[in-house]
Amino acid sequence: MQDEYEQTYQKLKEFFNKNFSWFLLATLVLAAIIRLKYMTVNAAVWWDEADYLNIAKHYALGTPNLAAPWRAKAMAMLWAPIYMLGGGEIGVRILHELFSIAGVYLTYYLGKKFFNKKVGLVAAFMMATFWLHIFWSTRVSLGTQGIVIWILSAIFFWNGYVEKKKKWYVVASAALMAWGLFAYEAIGFLIPFYAIFILATERLNFIKNKRFWLFFVTAILVATPFLAWNYTLYKDNYSYIGGAKSVIFSMYPRFGRTYEADWTGISPKGKGKANIDRPFSQTIDKFLTYFKQFPNLVKIPFLISILAGLSYFLNLILGIDLLNKNKKLKKDFYIFWWALFVSLIFATWMAASGFQFEPRLWFSGYPAIFVIGALGIIKIFNLLKKYNKLAALGVVLFILVWGAYSNITYANNLINIKKDTYAHEKLAGEWLKQNSNPKDIITGCGLSVPLTYYSERKLKFYNGNEDSGYDKIIEEHKPKYFIMDFYDPNCKPQWYLQKHQDNLIPVQVYFFDQAQKQPVIVIFKIQYPFNMS
User: Fold this and answer.
1) Can you give the pTM of this predicted structure?
2) Domain 423-526: CATH class, spelled out
């Protein structure tokens, strides 16, 4: 009987090795099918999506742009030609899905390059079925593109800087990193990732390394035009701060956003309370949030494989003092440090800033995390095959299928729960586009960016509590419509509507409920002459 099991196992092994390329293709096809299934399921874009898509529309078609200055613009430059050529949002979404599938393939390539093709295949399967990657593949999320940029830069860095292959790898890695800073801000964390890796493996010898300086100079040359462009656009935005901060924030507005909203709470008017002003216990709790949430993020089956995979790195810990001499240890350290670094850097950022927990922030760490998980699957198999190879194969297949099912089911439920959110923004925006002219201006209060994206009209919104705010807009710009958008909890201009009910005539209403008792967006036509008294 044992011989029969052995023969069956050998036949399966031979079949797998002979048809490996088909298994890889099947994984990529599975990833594509899942992502294409949900590509157009969402009724409307979310705020972040509207910001980035609005920038692309602005570049391509010249439509009004209300996106925040800190929004990354480099990816929108890639999308702009799609709008220019008439591909529209669907064209952007197709490109987005291609990036998503590329992330799955590059996860395979990463595992194959640093270990072997079996590790790569298992890691790719995990990424293909990972609920977070699936969910954000349905949204135009820069994190999905960020995974691709991060992996490519990291692989090029390894090829060119560590393995000292052709120098163009060094140039490509640095260029991708620098450009990525303006495509997805989290790519900037590649800088400390590379820096600590270099210090750990070279000590201070990097100073004499010509490839380090090639990397450094390339990054500066690629980043400088973007920094200069930002400065010309936003040099007045942070003038109230003054000094070097004003210049730095103008060149890279995300720093300014983080400084104002996440670190100090200081607004242009000097209001707000520092987010870091809180009990130390809350800071520690913030730091540990991701680690406590990790089992739920990857789901139990994949967690088992990841924990098993960590045992692979025991030799790395024991031989850490040989890191600069042993190539295998250096390889292991690169993957282990990649997964650990992303976890630590965002946990530290959350602890320091008080920023709300966002699982997608850790996107760039998952390729390495799933490579570790794939090592765990191999580890489990090798441990069990001593007793029965077919049973061992059955166990690891069960873990993978169970993990895939758990993740895909979770993604499906979450996507369907969220798919209709902000649908009224699209309906209202499209109505405004159909019932106005391109030069018309619209006022009111609410989520201005989604409405701008769909209406392609200039919105002058005001969320204050003084008559003079709306009066000034109406007097100066003569807007055609006044909007109340209750998606924004700060939109409460009922006092103004009551005062000017003769001049504000409701023409379109959208409701939360089918009974039409809870209005969510109300559009009023403004009748002129407008009585300001």
Assistant:
1) 0.92
2) alpha beta
